[in-house]
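COURSE: Structural Biology Practicum
ASSIGNMENT: Worksheet 4, Part C
STUDENT ID: 0417
INSTRUCTIONS: Below are two proteins. For each, the amino acid sequence is given first, followed by its structure token string. Answer the questions at the end about the second protein only.

PROTEIN I
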Amino acid sequence: MAHRVLIPTPLRPYTSQQETVDAEGGTVGEVLSSLTTQYSDLRRHLYADDGKLRHFVNVYVNDDDIRYLERDATKLKPGDVISIVPSVAGGAPGPAAAADRSAELSNAEIQRYSRHLILPEVGIDGQKRIKGGRVLCIGAGGLGSPAALYLAAAGIGTLGVVDFDNVDESNLQRQILHGTPDVGRSKLQSARDRLTAINPEVHLETYETRLTSANALELFKGYDVILDGTDNFATRYLVNDACVLLKKPNAYGSIFRFEGQASDFATVGGPCYRCLYPEPPPPGLVPSCAEGGVLGVLPGVIGTIQATEALKLILGAGSTLVGRLLLYDAWTMKFRELKLRRDPACPICGDHPSIKGLIDYEEFCGVAPAQTKAAAGPAVPETTVEELKARVDAKKPFFLLDVREPHEFQISRIAGSTLIPLGQLPSRTNELPSGQEIIVHCKTGVRSARAVTLLKEKGIEAKNLKGGIVAWIDKVDPSLAKY
């Protein structure tokens, strides 16, 4: 019997860009086996070397997680739909009691928030809760921008923002806290100006620092809700664990290309992020937004959902995203919802937690500190753009392989390069020359490093171009378009 399998955006390069695939089988395991037989390159993304499903990949039958059914042995009925949900990235809310409900509203505030006040679900008492509420946004980027804007407009009493980056021109397509005149400025300075202009009554606390295991608990403890606008797995697990330890709700969101996820974690009795994704993916297996791209309005949708959840948690609303994972596909304009459950065996929020404090999250996610990397040397053979330029000038023979996507190749390319997208590389290695030095590049060097590793596994020696085409543009040929 054939069943429909929904393929998420990050995995579509391995299914010939298909969004859905029909695969035969009577159980989930049989269907996945059929799927990975059809698309062999997909297997390493779904299964670890021991043949078991990876912990950062969840599989649902309709809206039920197979971990709470019969796992791979879950039997399928006609019409059942299988969803693959990788990481990109019920309970009582509680924080409403922490909000200061005694804060009185001035006549000016009553006028400003009048559309809230005439909602029976909010009213005067609810707006007082919002005024007494404290929300900390981790990041002033794609997700943090719309979330902070709407929280400030809604009249949240104290709004904290953590960030340590400067505004880059490439941010402006989606990070709506910042404008063209802000390029080069601190994101926190830009955010303060914009948020104060929207609502000068909101008390802003800014923290120009990188969130770490050393400062997270101290930063979080004075807030009612933590809003996770992070863009990397190490910080995401750090935010989750700090929220669980402090019993602070985590309004979670993540985005990639056209797809987004949102939920509420770490509430009393509810699941946490580790219940959904017990382990992070290996470094480099899941591309970042810088490598994979993101539709500019997508973080607007997901960030606004996070802000909505933060307000509802403060108001004590009963129908939040606790116990639910909301999936959004902007390209097809579809929302889906999957059930989440607290895992009794979860190492931090389970019945017998083994994690009692914050850990080294870079080590947990397999990201070695810079000094360790330097001591150990590069993970793959590398060459620099200066060395590549010298080869070009000396007219030394070599093969320059570009593993980006065709649309990126159209934006800019290094003269003489040959395009074979990373997802197609395993089946097209026969197109590579023998007896000639191969140099591989992508945008910044992440995907090309994976390509070099893949080629090495097939007995083909190659070098990664450090920094990719971005470094080539910065240091060799600034006439090319930078994206």
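PROTEIN II
(use this one for the questions)
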Amino acid sequence: MKPSKYSIVIPAYNEASRLPRTLQPILAFIKAKSWEAEVIVVNDGSTDATADVVREFSRQHAAVCLVDNQVNQGKGRSIRDGVKLATGDIILFADADNSTPIEDAELLVQAIEDGADIAIGSRWVDRKLQVQPQPWYRRLNGRVYNLLLRGILGLDYKDTQNGFKAFTRCAAKTIFGMQRIAGWGFDAEVLYLARKFNLAVREVPVEYTYYAEGSKIRPYRAGARMLVELLMVRWYGLTGKYSGSDSAAPGAPEGLASVSFQEGPTD
């Protein structure tokens, strides 16, 4: 039986110029597929017109909701905020730059319908799907990080950092209820927690286009921070920090009806 509802979470920091090209195809896709869906955009303390862009979309499309965080807290925290409020049976998050087309969401959904708890979009399972690859230095940094990921956390995935992942509702509420890393390293933490709870993770090849304009990652600074965050995840695991949740119980129902948005779809 197919799920009745989908939640798409989009973290956004100073994305006023790129969000329209992402939200428009997502809304067109939802309509074409007759999905019952909500699109939750988490504005992470932007200093540009990101919030205003989302408000305008929400006025025209009831599916679009804005979570407007006044202070920048990081991608991991933004996605956690969005997942906490999501009501879908399948919860997916996607980057604001539309680097992976929303049409590939069907591949992730199919993997979940086939039994996976989590489906992660991968740029490296089939490299031919990279329409515009990252520059060489970012690919090199990514490979080094992947080696560190395997050595520190023991995670054997080709690509953990692509911002296109889908979860069953229970898996998302369980993992993001315990997630602690606010920055870029949250992806590794999510997969570490998935292994802790014996959740089935499937890596799915997806299309990818690198957009240099508007990128927020400073490779070397971000790389150093992500290494620290890997060590933090390992430390949290060794010291039992993931033995309980500081929010909802794993899998507990939580949704838009029970939590107030700072901006709603009809505002």
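ANSWER KEY EXCERPT:
Q1: The longest strand covers residues 37-44.
Q2: The helical segments are 19-33, 50-60, 75-85, 105-113, 136-153, 169-176, 186-196, 219-238.
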